[in-house]
Structure formats: structure tokens, C-alpha cells
Amino acid sequence: MDQPKHRPLERFWPYADLPEQPTDEELAALDPDLHEALFGARPRPFSITLVFPTLDDPEFPRALELARASAEYRQTGAGAALRHRARFWSSDPLPLRNLFEIVGGSDATEVLIDDRPVPFARELWLPLVWFLIPR
Q: pTM surpassing 0.85?
């Protein structure tokens, strides 16, 4: 049996020293379906989420202001793939409508009901939520 000519150092480790537990920011950035699969369902009220790209619209800064004021706001992607996610509870129909009036004209805007795309979300679900706006 041949003896090795040198012995590797024990301190050598080619990987970054990462924490064993994910940070709060990493947990917040998880896809909702993955979070549910890993940690179970979180009890939360009914929600409607608007997912939209950066738009070339003079009202877009106002849209970002409304999105950041939502119950949960998150940005994903970068560059042309940048998407803004704003979740609203059913108790906040007016800010939801105000944001949708700005970003809803874009075909790239998605409407998610409890984080899932459902048929007729724009045509049925949103007008039903508008009925919750006090007159």
C-alpha cells in the first residue's frame, strides 16, 4: 500500500460557513407553497394578492407606495423579471382597489386568491371584494 506524500489540513473546508437555521428574511422570501410543505399551513385570514411588474406609468410610484403599505409586500426577481407582490386582507378593500386601478390594466398583472391563481379572479373575485368598500 502506498503512503500519501502529503496530508491535507483539517482546517480546510471549501464551503462557506452558513448558519444551520434560515433567517427571518429567508423564511419570508419562501414561496408560500414551499413554506406550507415545510412548516405546515399558517392560519391567516382570506387574502388577495396582486403580483405585477414594473410598469411605465406616471402613476407607478403611487402604486409602489400602495403596495408597500399592504399587509405583506415582497419583491422577487431582478431586471426585467422584477415582480412586486402585495397581499391585502379582505378587511382592506379600498387600498386593494386603488392599487388595482393603477396596475390592473397590464396583462402581466396577476390576481391570486389565498396565494393561488383561480379562474375569474379579476372578473369575479375582485368585484365581489369591491362590495366590501363602505359608501
A: no
Q: Does 60 map to a domain?
A: yes
The pLDDT score that the predictor gives to residue 70 is 95
Q: How far apart, in whole angstroms, are the C-alpha atoms of residue 113 and residue 50?
A: 9
Question: Domain range spanning residue 108?
Answer: 45-130
| Domains in the chain, number | 1
120 occurs within a structural domain: yes
Cβ distance 58 to 66 under 8 Å?
Answer: no
Q: Which helix (H) or strand (E) holds 61?
A: helix 60-68
Q: Contact 87/49 with Cβ under 8 angstroms?
A: yes
Q: Are 47 and 88 in contact (CB under 8 A)?
A: yes
